[in-house]
Branched-chain-amino-acid aminotransferase
Amino acid sequence: MTTPTIELKPSASPLSDAERAAILANPGFGRHFTDHMVVIKWTEGRGWHDGQLVPYAPLSLDPATMVLHYAQEIFEGLKAYRQPDGTVATFRPEKNAQRFQASARRLGMPELPVETFIEACDALVKQDEAWVPAHGGEESLYLRPFMIATEVGLGVKPANEYLFLVIASPAGAYFPGGVKPVSIWVSEDHVRAVPGGMGDAKTGGNYAASLLAQAEAAEQGCAQVCYLDAVERKWVEELGGMNLYFVYGNKIVTPTLTGSILEGVTRDSLLQVARDLGYEAEEGRVSVDQWQTDSANGTLTEVFACGTAAVITPVGTVKRTGAEWTQGAGEPGEVTVKLRQALLDIQRGTAEDQHGWMHKLG
Ligand SMILES: *Cc1c(COP(=O)(O)O)cnc(C)c1O
């Protein structure tokens, strides 16, 4: 299969410097989008073709477009950070590209070559480089590559046409007022994913499945849902969009990948960063009962969640039916803070990139 090139058709009317600066002063998350997007088509028999960088604009879709009915959709999320020398770099984009291929396989979609995925992200970041926030803070440019089934028809089958797109959105510091622990509702009624299902694929369907539990968590006064395994309803899996780590003194433990857990790039990176800092880091099984017991007896010293958007979020209060406890004193723990800083330093280019994780642009 040939790799498509991306033809540049930039906007004749990008936002002015002043308008962009006003957005960058308070970007929030996922609220504002840059001037351009990348679009690449796939058609059965022809493969990937017509790669273009074009002005950001609405899509026009026939009401019978397959993705709107059967949710054949996958996505990714990665960030571009301004480096101290003013250049821009993305964090481990090949991991996202590989996961995008794995998600595509699971949903019966065509695999985009890793180099095309990276080229598409690079082309958008280069074109909209002025949207990458300044070095110094935790701000970044969030990239959202995704693919949808665009064949028109209501027959249920893998589509014969797809659209791959990359859009970008400036992201403010996740914790503008300083890192604060999140509260967690452990859902014993709803599951996010099942063995043999698509929990290890990054697809909108998993998020749709999580929204009711998310609303229940909010009713319980909690910010996030923790899902348990679907069979025994006992083993901790992950949050709706973040992986979990348990800190036992000098050892960090994250749930073993079971097929119903999404393999986070942040999760993977932290296993390495923790070892680099002299901690023990391993995968294992942790039950919700164990979580409660070890938190009460003090052996479990910290818990945190991790993902591209927030990097690391400490877990504070945990609620399940009939019980509630608070990890630590409700303050971010020492290991949590150290790991967060170490990973951010690599991403922002202020610490040595020992593992070749940073992908420098231009
Ligand atoms: C994206 C995602 C994560 C975090 O993955 P990162 O690659 O670290 O951003 C965790 N869980 C789910 C369900 C996700 O969709």
Remarks:
- The helical segments are 17-24, 67-70, 93-106, 114-127, 204-219, 265-276, 288-297, 334-347.
- The chain has two domains: 7-171, 182-347.
- The mean pLDDT is 96.
